[in-house]
């Protein structure tokens, strides 16, 4: 099973429609992959708080349409990163709510799962005040594995990843807009989530700088033993690709059955 992470930049001078077209072209170029992953909020920028409301869209909006077509043409499973989802009537007093929502498309272009980010970043500012929180872990069954979905700040909360593992996840996918000043945490936590859950981790970050926040980049694919299979060396625009062996998850779990010895559940 081949997985590719598309570490793209979010330039405020590039119109969102242009970036959608560029991302769709990159997806089509990965037609030899089985699974393709994009970063968090790549249409607006994870730290571009002032753009959230204007850049919000429904689940059948322009990003979903462009990604559906790209997945269908490339014949890949596509984790299209996340968008600012506008949910009419779900906010306080019947107002619209905004969610940081990840989209997963089948090779036929069908939107098969969405995941609303549970842990919002900002400590009473930014995303934490502008977005509503999701409340449900989400897994996605693929022919060769089961994905568990997480977004950026979620990476700091191991209980979510354990819940995904308990729900059958064998490949944990994290889309992110992770800042460069905490890049060491990004790499450490991606490996930790792989080791403690004995699962593949596919962590796709953003390139460059947006909203004056330099990005960590360093998108990475980690195997169930914690070994790095492929990693972007910096925060430039990169495609990170590795071959995954779905059977290796079961081998690691059988050879070193740490999950069996859990006491607190």
Automatic annotation (TrEMBL):
Residues 1-246 form the CN hydrolase domain. Keywords: Hydrolase. InterPro entries: C-N_Hydrolase (IPR003010), C-N_Hydrolase_sf (IPR036526), UPF0012_CS (IPR001110). Pfam families: CN_hydrolase. It comes from the Bacteria. The keyword Transferase does not apply. GO terms for molecular function: hydrolase activity. The keyword Hydrolase applies. Belongs to the carbon-nitrogen hydrolase superfamily. NIT1/NIT2 family. This is Carbon-nitrogen family hydrolase. It comes from Streptomyces desertarenae.
């Amino acid at each position: 099973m081949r997985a590719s992470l598309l570490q793209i930049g979010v330039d405020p001078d590039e119109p969102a429609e242009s970036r959608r077209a560029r991302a769709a072209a990159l997806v089509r170029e990965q037609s030899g992959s089985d699974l393709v992953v994009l970063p968090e909020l790549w249409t607006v920028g994870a730290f571009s708080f002032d753009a959230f409301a204007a850049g919000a869209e429904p689940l059948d909006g322009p990003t979903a349409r462009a990604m559906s077509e790209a997945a269908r043409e490339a014949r890949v499973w596509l984790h299209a990163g996340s968008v600012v989802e506008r949910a009419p009537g779900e906010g306080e007093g019947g107002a619209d709510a905004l969610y940081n929502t990840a989209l997963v498309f089948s090779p036929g272009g069908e939107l098969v799962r969405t995941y609303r980010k549970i842990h919002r970043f900002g400590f009473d500012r930014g995303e934490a005040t502008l977005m509503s929180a999701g409340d449900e872990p989400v897994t996605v069954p693929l022919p060769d594995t089961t994905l568990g979905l997480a977004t950026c700040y979620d990476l700091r909360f191991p209980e979510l990843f354990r819940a995904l593992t308990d729900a059958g996840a064998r490949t944990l996918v994290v889309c992110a807009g992770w800042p460069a000043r905490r890049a060491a945490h990004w790499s450490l936590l991606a490996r930790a989530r792989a080791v403690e859950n004995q699962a593949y981790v596919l962590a796709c970050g953003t390139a460059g700088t947006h909203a004056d926040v330099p990005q960590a980049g360093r998108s990475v694919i980690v195997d169930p033993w914690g070994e790095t299979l492929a990693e972007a060396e910096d925060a430039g625009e990169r495609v990170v690709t590795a071959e995954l062996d779905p059977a290796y998850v079961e081998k690691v779990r059988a050879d070193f059955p740490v999950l069996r010895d859990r006491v607190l559940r």
